[in-house]
DNA sequence: AACTCGGGGCA
DNA sequence: TGCCCAGAGTT
C-alpha cells in the first residue's frame, strides 16, 4: 500500500465511521486510563456500562483508593478479569497519588510502570490525552495492518512503528477508532465481510470476498 | 513461548 | 454449549 493509498484508506474508514468516539468519551486522562485498563480482553460496550456507574462514584485517584478493591469490584464484576482489574485500578491510583500528585504522567516509562498498564494502554493515553504521535496496536489493528498491507510487521511493535511512520500526522490521533471498528466489524478475524469494506481496491488481502 | 485471568457475546 | 475477546503479568 503506497503512502497515497494509506491516506485514502484511512479517510475512507473515517467516512465509514462518522460517529466513532470510543475512548474520546472519557474526558479526563485519569478516567481514560482506568477505562483502558478495564478494557483488556473485554468488549467496549460492557466496559462503558461499568465505567458509567464507577466514575459517578470515583472519577479521581483519591476517590478510587477510598472506594477500595471490593468497592471497585462491585461496579466491574460484570466484565471479565474483574479481580485483577480491581486490584490494579486501586494500586495504580495509589501510585498516581504517591508519585505524581494524583496526575496521570505523560511519559511512556511512567505509564508502563503502573500496574495493569502495558504498551497498548500507554499508547492510548499518550495519543488521546497527551496528543503524542503513537498508535495503540491491539489484535484487531495488528491483523488489519498485516492483512490489508497498511502496516506489515511480525510483531505488535513493528506494526505500531509502521503505522506511526505511514499514517499522516493529521489523521494519526483519530485513526485508532476507525481502524479498530473496521477490524472488529468488517475486517474480522474469521469471515471478513469484504463486500462491506469501503476500500477493496486499496486492500492487498489476497482472499477478499467481494460478494456476501 | 506458554499460561492465567473471566464474565459476556455470539455462532 | 463452546469458543473467543479493545492485554498484561508471571513463569
Automatic annotation (TrEMBL):
Q: Where are the transmembrane segments?
A: none
Keyword Iron-sulfur included in the entry's annotation: yes
Q: Which residues bind [4Fe-4S] cluster?
A: 187, 194, 197, 203
Identify one Pfam family in the record: HHH
Mind listing the UniProt keywords for this protein, alphabetically?
Answer: 4Fe-4S, DNA damage, DNA repair, DNA-binding, Endonuclease, Glycosidase, Hydrolase, Iron, Iron-sulfur, Lyase, Metal-binding, Nuclease
Could you tell me which InterPro entries the record lists for this protein? Answer: DNA_glycosylase, Endonuclease-III-like_CS2, HhH-GPD_domain, HhH_base_excis_C, HhH_motif, Nth
User: What residues does the HhH-GPD domain cover?
Assistant: 38-185
Q: List the EC numbers from the record.
A: 4.2.99.18
GO annotation, biological process: base-excision repair, AP site formation
Reaction(s) catalyzed by this protein?
2'-deoxyribonucleotide-(2'-deoxyribose 5'-phosphate)-2'-deoxyribonucleotide-DNA = a 3'-end 2'-deoxyribonucleotide-(2,3-dehydro-2,3-deoxyribose 5'-phosphate)-DNA + a 5'-end 5'-phospho-2'-deoxyribonucleoside-DNA + H(+)
**Cofactor binding note:** Binds 1 [4Fe-4S] cluster.
The terms under GO molecular function for this entry are: 4 iron, 4 sulfur cluster binding; class I DNA-(apurinic or apyrimidinic site) endonuclease activity; DNA binding; DNA N-glycosylase activity; metal ion binding
Requisite cofactors: [4Fe-4S] cluster
Q: What class of enzyme is it?
A: lyase
The task this protein performs is described as:
DNA repair enzyme that has both DNA N-glycosylase activity and AP-lyase activity. The DNA N-glycosylase activity releases various damaged pyrimidines from DNA by cleaving the N-glycosidic bond, leaving an AP (apurinic/apyrimidinic) site. The AP-lyase activity cleaves the phosphodiester bond 3' to the AP site by a beta-elimination, leaving a 3'-terminal unsaturated sugar and a product with a terminal 5'-phosphate.
The family classification in the record reads: Belongs to the Nth/MutY family.
Q: Tell me what this protein is called.
A: Endonuclease III
| Taxonomic source organism | Commensalibacter papalotli
Amino acid at each position: 500500500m503506497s503512502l497515497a493509498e494509506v491516506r485514502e484508506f484511512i479517510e475512507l474508514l473515517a467516512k465509514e465511521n462518522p460517529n466513532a468516539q470510543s475512548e474520546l468519551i472519557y474526558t479526563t486522562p485519569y478516567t481514560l486510563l482506568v477505562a483502558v485498563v478495564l478494557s483488556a480482553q473485554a468488549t467496549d460496550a460492557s466496559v462503558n456500562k461499568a465505567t458509567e456507574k464507577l466514575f459517578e462514584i470515583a472519577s479521581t485517584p483519591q476517590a478510587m483508593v477510598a472506594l477500595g478493591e471490593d468497592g471497585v469490584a462491585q461496579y466491574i464484576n460484570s466484565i471479565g478479569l474483574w479481580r485483577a482489574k480491581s486490584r490494579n485500578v486501586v494500586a495504580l491510583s495509589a501510585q498516581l497519588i504517591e508519585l505524581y500528585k494524583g496526575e496521570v504522567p505523560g511519559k511512556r516509562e511512567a505509564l508502563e510502570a503502573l500496574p495493569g498498564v502495558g504498551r497498548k494502554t500507554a499508547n492510548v493515553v499518550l495519543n488521546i490525552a497527551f496528543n503524542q504521535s503513537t498508535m495503540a496496536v491491539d489484535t484487531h489493528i495488528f491483523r488489519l495492518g498485516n492483512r490489508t498491507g497498511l502496516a506489515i510487521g511480525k510483531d505488535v511493535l513493528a506494526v505500531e512503528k509502521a503505522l506511526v511512520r505511514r499514517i499522516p500526522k493529521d489523521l494519526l490521533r483519530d485513526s485508532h477508532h476507525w481502524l479498530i471498528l473496521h477490524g472488529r466489524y468488517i475486517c474480522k478475524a474469521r469471515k471478513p465481510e469484504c463486500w462491506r469494506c469501503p476500500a477493496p481496491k486499496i486492500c492487498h488481502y489476497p482472499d477478499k470476498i467481494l460478494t456476501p
